[in-house]
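input
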Amino acid sequence: MYRIVNLCLAILGDSRVELEKIVLAAVFHDLGIWTNNTFDYIVPSVAIAHKHLAARGMADWIPQIEAMIVDHHKITPSRANPQSLVESFRRADWIDVSRGVRRFGIPRTFIAAVASKWPDAGFHRRLVQLTIDRFWKHPLNPLPMVKW
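output
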């Protein structure tokens, strides 16, 4: 979560105005993996975020947070403009999940510093395990969270 937040802020130019939205999307974007025990986790993650935001009187944030979660593994740019929070979050997650292979102009040194400060604690290794398991069970749809 901290890696995504810091990468997103770097892409946005350290826009602290949107920090709470970035944090909320970061908290919920992969949560469905664990709460619903599924690798097809976008819908459960959105549902949990929706419930959380509605319960806190933040319903007006739901569309943007939902878009951030839904588009975070989109291969092509979000339909939102390139400077949008949704697109910045998508890029930050791609930087993290690719371990800096996709950088979107963020310096390698910054990415390495973020990864060093907040190590993944085996998260990427677990994603590989889940991907392999999903591939064996669903060979025609091994990565359901990835969208074009």
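quick obs: The chain has a mean pLDDT of 92.
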